[in-house]
Amino acid sequence: MIEFDNVKKTYADSTVAIENVSFEVAEGTTTVLVGPSGCGKTTTMKLVNRLEDPTEGTVYYDGTDTQAIDVTELRRDIGYVIQEIGLFNHMTVGENVATVPKLKGWDADRIDDRVDELLELMALPPTKYRDQYPRELSGGQRQRVGVARALAADPDVLLMDEPFGALDPITRADLQDEFLEIQAEINTTILFVTHSIDEALKMGDKIAIFDVGELVQYDTPRNILEDP
Ligand code: ADP
Ligand code: ADP
After folding, report:
1. Which ligand lies nearest the alpha carbon of 193?
2. Site residues for ligand 1, CB cut-off 6 Å
3. What's the pTM value of the predicted model, to 2 decimals?
């Protein structure tokens, strides 16, 4: 589904963010990119939806070089969730979640059903939360809306960059558990960035361990625990 082939990214100021990075993410699986701050996780993620482009090597999406895919089209298939999610504050929760389905031209009934379904799934009962504004919600609830928004139009790929990073430990554990349940119900290919090895072991089918710009290990949680 997603393949990195010997990818290097050098920024304009000559910082080499990643080098020699190769890995493959199978459809419907979750790969967690883990490692300390500054080791290249976010850069790797941004190379998938072309917020950045590789300096060397190739990133493939569904077998096609991403450089040959129209950026708008690529991003239509790829949901993106970041820390401190950028919800639209002038829009209600329901309107936030409906953003991408609207862009895709879904009809109103289908959008309404989808929004309710996702809010239900994220433990935000729509009758209570649909018409509220982001400022009326807690941090954990806002992050739930962000995940619902990213999932709304059934993306083939979901990129999640420290999605639960700004939350207190208990809310974070709750959201991890909820997300694991959702993961089991959808067939979305997920790339998940965290600096917490515990979170990586909990959430990942595969774990990619980064250390200053290099991918040093890529394996299942079980194999990583047996061969640290
Ligand atoms: P991580 O997500 O693991 O914290 P990043 O991918 O954000 O790592 O950053 C990797 C390296 O690239 C760091 O040294 C960071 O400072 C640098 N970097 C990231 N973005 C830019 C940029 N836009 N311009 C220059 N250097 C950058
Ligand atoms: P994280 O560590 O959570 O990945 P950062 O705080 O390192 O995030 O980076 C936040 C934003 O700043 C990112 O969009 C990244 O690309 C950019 N950035 C990081 N390092 C640099 C840098 N040295 N020069 C310019 N932009 C940077």
Report:
1. 1
2. 11, 13, 15, 17, 35, 37-43
3. 0.84
